Amino acid sequence: MRKKLYMIMRIIVWIVIVIWVIITAAGYLVSCAPLWERLPRPPLLIGNSLTPTAAHSPAAMTALALSPDWRQQAERVIDQVLENMHEHAWNAQAMTRGLRTGGLFINWKMTDPRRINAVHPDAQKGRQEKHDPQVDLLYLSALSAYQRLHPGITIYQADLQRTLAVVKFAFQNYNLPKGWIYFALLTLGLTLPDASLLEEAHELAERFYRFWYDPLAGTVYDRLHRPPDYNTAHTLECGAALIDAGKRWQMPAWREAGERTLQHIIKMAFDPHRHLLHESMLAGSTGHDQPQNDEVRAAAEGEAVTALVLAYRLTGQSQYLALAGVLLRSLFVTSGLWDTQRGGFYFALRLSDGKVIQDYKETRAQCLTVNGLHLYNAQAGAPFVSEERSLIALLLGPFYEHTYHGYFYRLSADFQIYISKPGAGIGKEDYFTSEAMGCALNALFSVLLPS
Q1: Whole-prediction pTM value?
Q2: What is the CA radius of gyration of the chain?
Q3: Predicted local distance difference test score (pLDDT) of residue 423
Q4: Can you tell me the distance from the alpha carbon of 29 to that of 35, in angstroms, rounded to the nearest whole number?
């Protein structure tokens, strides 16, 4: 009996020892968890975390209030901005390819719209004929979206028609590796509708494949630059464009080129420490690309999110949606680019030391991120809905000039008119820019209209 009792006691002692070892090991592993989080993981293998928790993120905790009638507010702002552009943005003297086609002024002074195209420290040096066809394309997209939102209202029909004529001329035979141009032309071709724009989208995709896609490297890049390089967001958009065009026009080679491009760019440009994409890369002759610089802008990351979500919608491959979520979490939570006190994205981040450039906030950074964020939330169960509302509130609030009805290229960190340093700008930047107006309009339309 005593021997049996002794054996039972030994068993109990060993059980206690084993439990103690397990508890100790578990505590050690938990203490190492943050270390695991810092270990780089391949971006194409970022688990199944397609809905990262945003509820406890700094962005969510400092969310700007978005009033219940924000849709009505957004429509009022859209009406006011379009009216401002109708009155002040059109430049009948603008030249395109040596011909007087008209177009939009680059900018005009808020309180004196006669002062235009201020692009030098001396505001009077602006050229009357200067305009940017890409900004005209943004404006046409906004006018087309307004037509979709308000069918039957023809108040801006004349503006649409003259801008359409400029865009058709400017983008005929367009040949640069910027994938967003394809999607803008495609959307306009389908929604206006306009067969010539749809055909130009088709031909642009063909040029992406023929001129800018390198089948040996398996990616799109600018071969004409010396050394060859690429803008990461633009090339991701080219990849998505090739996939879309390959499916739309039954061109399997284009679709394959698009998917190879996406895989290549993600592999080469993803920074595993900051969980962001390098903004521009030098294309390596052996397929091993190198970062071209150290800074990444919030605007470029927001644009990349849109490209990745589009790629997910086109292919169904969850890796693209997963990476878009990783970029968004870094933008709002870990990178420091999001101002947790006042809201809004600062200009840029240095990847090498994590220093955030906080001098100003670009309007387009907020707008481009709204576009990608809205698409992402629709596909991933809205994990960043608070952040999306914050950005919309910013565009309807401090980024918007409520008296003269417009948007500036940038504002100071506390949402005041930015004053550029001597020799580095025009001084007091109280000029509405057609680019900022177009970006803001399209961002607001993106949340008001079905995708």
Answers
A1: 0.87
A2: 25
A3: 82
A4: 10
